[in-house]
């Protein structure tokens, strides 16, 4: 089996931090949820040697304290924090804060092409092997031919 699936109830995550490494057998990305009660936050600041972090706010509001600056967070916000930045997270006094936190190390050698739209551009498209829901769809076949030609031109 080349995948690992786990379901979470986003409306009722455990309070504080839930780390997903073991549940998903993660090897290349750090991932966890933060569910901070109203008015509560981390009790210390932290930074990393190499790992940048991305905070995706699912619900609520709060602040993230980065290198002495308070930055407001609301549902829908996404903020990337450089590894060396000192940071800490706190929920608003009137609202809990629920975030997905992602971390990763610099992708040395990527992107491989300057024109790439993605950071890790090691995808290997199989233009002729359509997913079952598009098998025989001539429009999709033509789209894939065009995408293949564009990719090969770069």
Automatic annotation (TrEMBL):
Statement: the UniProt record of this protein carries the keyword Metal-binding: yes
Keywords on record: Metal-binding
Keyword Metal-binding: yes
Matching InterPro entries: Cupin_2, GPI/OXD, RmlC-like_jellyroll, RmlC_Cupin_sf
SUPFAM superfamilies: RmlC-like cupins
Domain Cupin type-2: 34-100
One matching Pfam family: Cupin_2
GO molecular function: metal ion binding
Protein name: Cupin type-2 domain-containing protein
Organism: marine metagenome
